Amino acid sequence: MTLKEISKFLGIDCKIDKEITGLNSLNDSNENELTFLENKKYINDLKNTKAGAILISNEYSKEIPENCIALICDEPYLALAKASKLFDPKLIETTGNESKIGKNSTIMQNVYLGKNSVIGDNCTIMHGSFIGDNVQIGNNTIIYPNVTIYRDCMVGNDCIIHSGTVIGSDGFGFANTKDGKYIKIYQNGNVIIGSDVEIGANCTIDRAVFKSTIIDDGVRIDNLVHIAHNCKIGKGCILVTQVGLSGSTTLHHYVVMGGQSATSGHLEIAPFTTIAARGGVTKSITEPKKSWAGFPLFEHKQWLRLQGKISNLLK
Q1: Active-site annotation holds for 252
Q2: Out of 162, 226, 229, 252, which one is annotated catalytic?
Q3: Last residue of a domain, one of 87, 117, 149
Q4: For the chain, does the N or the C end have fewer beta carbons within 10 angstroms?
């Protein structure tokens, strides 16, 4: 679309016919993408953005780089939510190539394979699964009954995905109007799953708002785990049952999270960190190879001492 068309849809005054191919974050945008700034804590990212245009309030417009076109509006985040609908892909592709199925792969009855999808060699896809359009699945991968993989997602080699898991559903993203109405932010990214990954039953891995939610090689995910949009799960991480990761959480390699532990969004956890069961992570953990427990979070040894003192108070 052109900026002129987007601006008209949003009720913003702009007569420039520059082509815009999609939406993206401040840091990742290129000259043909539209971005936004709502929170002043990202003002340094604004100064370095490569975006072709930006939704921004007049307050911060003087900080925009020379080659970035300003779309001035009172509520940039709300405008982004409305603009995201313009770039939402079709629910179902009606044209395109039939799915390609590799050698020695078994596709059971009542499996849906979307347009332009590719299934590797020696795969097994069991009864009732849905594989959307433009999905890529590597070699030697097993998909158990009733798994759903939404459009544009990618799964590597030697993976196992258990029954009831949903990969690529929309992230939980909404913007509020002044009168409290929720406006959906369309999630136009995808999910990329590496190789040698096992995902348990009834897990949900949300697609990204922009770009990709990423599960790296060698990850092990237990049953009933939720991974929100734009998370990045590093190589060899282990997520035990009922772990919940909020949006844009980054786990570096070989992090272990115990059952029912969780994170706030937009934080990072250092390599080889262990979070004990029911631990709540609200701030980034920068020092690797430590164990943590509780909520608020303590180093595990301190948490054990604290529990001991509390127990003594009850005697």
Answers
A1: no
A2: 229
A3: 87
A4: C
